[in-house]
Design brief:
The protein is of the alpha+beta class. It folds into three domains: 12-139, Cathepsin B, Chain A; 144-238, no CATH class; 257-301, no CATH class. It contains ten helices and 14 strands. Strands 1-8-4-5-6-7 form a six-stranded antiparallel β-sheet. Helix 2 (26-40) packs across helix 3. It is elongated. The protein starts with 11 loop residues before the first helix and ends in a 9-residue tail after the last helix.
């Protein structure tokens, strides 16, 4: 039995795709419907018929087969993504919007929004996009295009796999190779410092950036920005950058380690942390006694929280 939506007109799916892509045939859509029917063990008529009134699943799968992702942009009157004016900026891989309930599509060409029926004003497009279920259509591989073009290796990290990095090498045709760095924080930082010749693609739930080696650290260039960075995450990244810069600087001269030790010791106790004597197993008893006196002096001066020990 067909589940065709009453709002979808015959040939609307074809018009929808041609408005944001290029000219296609009904046979192209019929082939997609046949694939879906075979996968779900249902009749082809579930997704359309010979009159050409194909459904949203056909349109979505057609786009996916050609390297385009459909990301939900609105839910009723609630907008879920960045503003349309931001999404259409060059280099974003943006293709257009599609209303999944009517299969009306919205493309942005030559500074003008267009539907299958004609152009729309800025006010009209804002109203239209907040009706029904709107999806943004974008090229899935656009953020990686420059790496492919230059035949470069790139690495990907994600929020839900904190200590796993996905490495993509040209000799493997950029097939994802997950590498776990769990409990290897020091090794990771050492490795990255020793291999500062290759740009790295990094992503999280807020943005996607390219990190490029630079004389003063890593230079980042945003590709996609989803939401403003969280202050906690921003502070953490800034602290890691500063530590890397300090280590690089000290490695080039013979003085300064005492200043760094003082700063790190104060910071550790200021945030409630502690360091045991076992951590300083390489120190003599006399040196440990000096450190103990130093710590008590910091307590008395109010530089660190807590009480002095005797």
């Amino acid at each position: 039995m067909s589940n065709l939506h009453p709002k979808i007109l015959p040939q609307q799916a074809k018009k929808c795709l041609e408005n944001i892509l290029y000219e296609i045939t009904n046979k192209d859509l019929h082939n997609i419907a046949a694939i879906l029917a075979q996968e779900q063990s249902v009749q082809v008529q579930t997704f359309g018929n010979s009159q050409g009134n194909w459904t949203w699943p056909v349109v979505c799968r057609f786009l996916h087969e050609r390297g385009h992702k459909c990301t939900q942009a609105s839910k009723g009157k609630q907008w879920l993504l960045n503003s349309p004016s931001f999404l259409v900026k060059p280099g974003s891989g943006f293709v257009g919007f599609v209303d999944s309930s009517t299969l009306e599509s919205y493309s942005y060409k030559e500074s003008q929004w267009r539907t299958t029926k004609g152009p729309l004003s800025k006010e009209e497009i804002n109203t239209a996009l907040q009706k029904g279920q709107t999806f943004a259509v974008h090229q899935m591989w656009a953020p990686l295009e420059s790496f492919y073009a230059q035949n470069n290796t790139f690495h990907i990290t994600t929020d839900n796999s904190q200590w796993t990095r996905y490495e993509c090498h040209p000799e493997a045709c950029w097939r994802l190779s997950p590498v776990s760095y769990d409990q290897r924080e020091t090794a990771v930082k050492k490795f990255m410092r020793a291999h500062k010749k290759t740009p790295i693609l990094m992503s999280n739930s807020q943005e996607m950036v390219i990190c490029t080696p630079h004389k003063s650290g890593w230079k980042t260039s945003p590709l996609l920005n989803y939401e403003p960075l969280d202050i906690h995450e921003t502070s953490q990244r800034a602290a890691e950058t500063l530590l890397d810069c300090i280590v690089q600087h000290l490695s080039k001269q013979d003085h300064g380690w005492g200043v760094l030790t003082h700063a790190l010791f104060t910071a550790l106790y200021q945030i409630g942390g502690k360091v045991s004597k076992e951590k300083f197993s390489r120190f003599t008893d006399e040196e440990l006694e000096i450190l103990e006196k130093y710590k008590n002096g910091m307590y008395k001066m109010g530089c660190i929280k807590g009480k002095s020990t005797h």
